[in-house]
């Protein structure tokens, strides 16, 4: 399986804001906790310890590769029956999953949004700049449209909007126009082909000054579009969480994108549903940022259901 580190075949993703998440969730034995983005189980491993054998953990991920990592890390086969349920689903489908397990409400929810470092290493889906496979960028390849198909079928103005809104890319128009010109002769199917088009579209001065791969924002935008990430979060915040969280229950959400953070902040402002526990988002300490650069943009917001 890809997405593993070298010969060791182990997940490499480090859970972000781990200490803060565990503290803010205020866990105790017997609670029912949902990790809506279980990934490699980095947070869930600690959640399980805190809720003990009387507790229940429900771990969701859209990506079956990540669920395999989690199954291994959490040692699901060795746990008492019913203590841990792992399911391939979007967190927005939580009410259906709960129904299947025979539950209607829960005590805690964690969402750690976005992409896992392990997915970056999955050559087959094009998440990493070095990937040689098709530029798919979906967490669940059985639904929706791969990114390369979006690039082939969306109009120039739609592509421009995707790059501008989801990627906050300042050269959106130039990139969209270059892509549309390029695809007339051959579809853009791989990470390398996309990076080349982006390099051609960006002014030479900006390209020379770029401190990261110039296609970073375009990749992020396409991933968000291919997975309908903001729509999933909107459903979760708007209807799912208010419906399934018990009064006094807590939701902790880590976002890496300003649009997501704004959505969470807005939702938690609604005092008819939430008591906001983090007027300012919690960010990673300097020490954590040194060990795990990925956490530099992480923002944790927590609220209690009224
Ligand atoms: C940042 S990782 C989570 C890492 C995890 N907390 C850990 O420490 O191991 C985000 C995970 O969320 C998954 N994901 C993204 N959107 C999702 C959604 N709508 N529903 C369920 N899982 C989702 C991704 O496939 C990825 O595995």
From TrEMBL:
S-adenosyl-L-methionine binds at residues 41-43, 61, 91, 112, 119. PANTHER family: 12S RRNA N4-METHYLCYTIDINE METHYLTRANSFERASE, S-ADENOSYL-METHYLTRANSFERASE MRAW. It catalyses: cytidine(1402) in 16S rRNA + S-adenosyl-L-methionine = N(4)-methylcytidine(1402) in 16S rRNA + S-adenosyl-L-homocysteine + H(+). GO terms for cellular component: cytoplasm. The keyword Transferase applies. Its main location: cytoplasm. It comes from Gimesia fumaroli. Pfam families: Methyltransf_5. GO terms for biological process: rRNA base methylation. Keywords: Cytoplasm, Methyltransferase, rRNA processing, S-adenosyl-L-methionine, Transferase. This is Ribosomal RNA small subunit methyltransferase H. Specifically methylates the N4 position of cytidine in position 1402 (C1402) of 16S rRNA. Gene3D superfamilies: Putative methyltransferase TM0872, insert domain (1.10.150.170), Vaccinia Virus protein VP39 (3.40.50.150). Belongs to the methyltransferase superfamily. RsmH family.
């Amino acid at each position: 399986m890809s997405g593993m580190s070298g010969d060791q075949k182990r997940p490499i993703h480090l859970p972000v804001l781990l200490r803060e998440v565990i503290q803010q969730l205020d866990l105790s034995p017997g609670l029912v906790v949902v990790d809506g983005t279980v990934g490699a189980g980095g947070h869930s491993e600690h959640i399980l310890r805190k809720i003990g054998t009387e507790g229940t953990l429900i771990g969701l991920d859209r990506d079956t590769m990540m669920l395999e990592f989690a199954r291994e890390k959490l040692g699901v086969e060795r746990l008492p029956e019913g203590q841990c349920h792992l399911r391939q689903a979007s967190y927005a489908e939580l009410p259906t999953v709960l129904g299947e397990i025979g539950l209607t409400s829960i005590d805690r929810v964690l969402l750690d949004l976005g992409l896992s470092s392990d997915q970056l290493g999955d050559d087959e889906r094009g998440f990493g700049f070095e990937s040689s496979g098709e530029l798919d960028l979906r967490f669940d390849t059985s639904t929706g449209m791969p990114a390369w198909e979006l690039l082939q079928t969306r109009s120039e103005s739609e592509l421009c909007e995707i790059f501008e809104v989801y990627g906050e890319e300042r050269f959106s128009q130039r990139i969209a126009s270059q892509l549309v010109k390029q695809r007339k002769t051959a579809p853009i199917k791989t990470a390398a082909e996309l990076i080349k088009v982006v390099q051609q579209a960006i002014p030479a001065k900006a390209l020379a000054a770029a401190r990261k791969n110039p296609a970073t924002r375009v990749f992020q935008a396409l991933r968000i579009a291919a997975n309908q990430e903001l729509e999933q979060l909107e459903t979760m915040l708007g209807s799912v969480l208010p419906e399934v969280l018990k009064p006094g229950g807590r939701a902790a959400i880590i976002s890496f994108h300003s649009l997501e953070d704004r959505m969470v902040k807005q939702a938690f402002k609604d005092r008819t549903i939430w008591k906001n526990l983090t007027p300012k988002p919690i960010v990673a300490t300097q020490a954590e940022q040194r060990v795990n650069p990925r956490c530099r943009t992480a923002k944790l917001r927590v609220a209690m259901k009224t």
